[in-house]
Amino acid sequence: MKAPLYTGALAHFEKQTLVTIASGVTCAYLGDERNLREFLVADETAKTLREAGHTVFTLLVDDSLDPLNYRQLRVAVNKDPRLMERCEHWCGTPIAHLPDPFECHASFAEHYEHVLLDRLHRLDCHPTLVSTSKLYERGLYDPYVSLVLERREEVLSFLSDRFPNYHPEKLFHPICPQCGVIVDTHIERVAAGAYHITCERCESHHDLALEQVKGKLNWKLDCAARWAHFRIDAEPFSKAYLEPIAGSFAVASALSKEFFGGKQVLPLHFGSVQQDRETSYLTAESLPAGALRSLFVDKPSSDIRISRDLILTTASRYEVMPGMTFQDFIKQLLPMWLLTPEALDPMQRDLVSRGMAFSRNFLDAEVKLHLPTRERIEGESPFILSSVRHLIAEVVEMRLGEPVPYDAFQRNLKTVIAGFEQNKKAVLVCLRAIVGQDHGIPVSKFLFALPLDYLQMLQYILDLHLDSVHALPMAPSSSFENHLAAA
Description:
Blueprint: H1 4-12, E1 18-25, H2 36-51, E2 55-62, H3 70-76, H4 81-87, H5 108-122, E3 128-131, H6 132-137, H7 142-150, H8 152-162, E4 172-174, E5 185-191, E6 194-199, E7 204-209, E8 215-217, H9 219-230, E9 234-237, H10 248-259, E10 266-269, E11 273-275, H11 283-286, H12 289-297, E12 304-306, H13 308-317, E13 319-321, E14 324-325, H14 326-332, H15 334-337, H16 346-362, H17 374-378, H18 382-400, H19 406-418, H20 424-435, H21 443-449, H22 452-468, H23 480-486
Parallel strand pairs: 1-2, 2-3, 9-10, 11-12
Antiparallel strand pairs: 4-8, 5-6, 6-7, 13-14
Helix pairs in contact: 1-2, 9-10, 14-16, 18-19, 18-20, 18-22
């Protein structure tokens, strides 16, 4: 059952074939998991519309002309004192104009654009990146900048009448032609067609023609221009931005329609996200991608708090395979999968990686490799061990053939187990003890899921033990009844 936000979007765009959905970000650092919700809600809305036959574009707009501030820098370089000292003078300059502190991308902004996109791709979210610095450089914003600067008093009068509680400090943020900062630069006056630019940082003064003035519109005007230019149809907003008196959505909507010829944008309201510090930056690496995405998009309008308890609950409910939750997987299968990493496919390796991170970050335990202990084997009767070895051999033979679905495997396994008759319980208890599954998923499920190499290794270990005690192992082709009679 789709949430009302998605069904509402379906109804709103029922007669519209092409839909464009945007979301915005400033890629000055990789934030914690809280900021993921906006992008995932946009993507889930797009997927819902595509399923109904719409053509949907999703844009991720990086406000890359935003200035770097000290707090962003601290997070971006992980509080590295060496990098902080080297880069702190960058604060106040647009992030697109700064070098990459890690020297692997063309700019500061581009580094964190790639990092964010990589995180989103792992969550099956694939928006098209739009960098506003490139839009300004190519002149796509020139008509909007010219309009705002030339009709400044008209824009201010409109805002005063419609939004008396909104008093913008600037309509346009110029960039100093000399030192490149944007935060301490102002348009002091306009005279005879020349714009007088002053910079408090380097104490410079410049008289520039309109086409020479570089900078960016303030956020609400920039958003209004972007909506008009790209013909945006919908964008996610949290409650704070939807406030009607002076909220960003209301102001940007009015400016876009009044001055830029824009149309009404559908706000996709998503609930707020709070996050406990102990889960910050650990949640994304510890949960399967589907579980994390589900956490944010299943009930998009509800407020959530990412706490340790919520993460544990999510892990205990989210199924990574039929009948097995993520938490069950960590406790029951993960140690065995670690024994044969070369046999795992990419999806299984990713699950192993997240399981190990979850165990470390939220269970305060390290996953350990599990091999049969001497005590588990030596304390058991050779007859039961031979029966266990027979069962494992039959499973290996079944799984070496043509792949079969779980239901067929389960039926075949039941036939093998039925042959143990009154010893069935003892054989299965011994098997569980050997593979470390005393309490857990059904035998058929873990025998179906265990790496084949691991099962073959168990078979070899049992062969060695049975040989050492001069007990003849049961061959897969021999009947249990014959083996019992020989014993």
